[in-house]
Amino acid sequence: MSPGAIFDLDGTLIAGTSAERLFVPFLARRGALGPRQWIPFLSELLPLPLVGRTRAMRRNKRYLTGLEIGEVERLTRDFLITTLRARYHEGTIARLRRLREEGKVVCLLTGAPDFLADAVAEDLGIAVASGTRLDTRDGRYTGRLAGPHWFGPAKVEGVRELAREHDLDLDRSFGFADHVQDIPFLGCFGHPVAVDPHPGLREHAEAHGWEIL
Asked: What is the pLDDT of residues 168-183, one digit of tens each?
């Protein structure tokens, strides 16, 4: 078994808001979103109570309904170049490169759509990317999920899946994340690292002797 390093995306490899929250308005500015996308997206979101709406919004991929896979991939490359690279967290990226040079198996695990995860992984030289898989039909996205949404406690199963597939020794591996929801995720690793942590995660990291980056 080999040591690895599994990174979260939002707030960890990129600073500030989530990649997907930036991607939706990017698509709108490029004219990719119309009534076929906005109506199912908003109809799923607006009836929800304010409490819990943010988490539900993370699972809501209806803004992709009917979009061609190839066109989304093209727009994703433009988004990466024009928007996302400027938000890379320099400290985390430097650590990622150092771990890769040491021979660690470097992975990305995120609740963001798989096409965003794949684009970032290719750009940063990450060997393995696992994002939320999306349902497609006839070369277009349906707006529905086709696999687990890697957020909160569900990320623990994502870690175990990566460990099984790539023969990772989690006791010798590093995990990187920023949010209090990531405490179960970080607890999977022998070397958890809290990146610019939210207050709840910082308190937990300090109490348990976790590294803070």
From this structure: 999 999 999 999 999 9
**Which domains are present in the chain?**
4-212 (3.40.50.1000)
Q: By three-state DSSP, how is residue 126 classified? A: coil
pLDDT, tens only, 93-109: 999 999 999 999 999 99
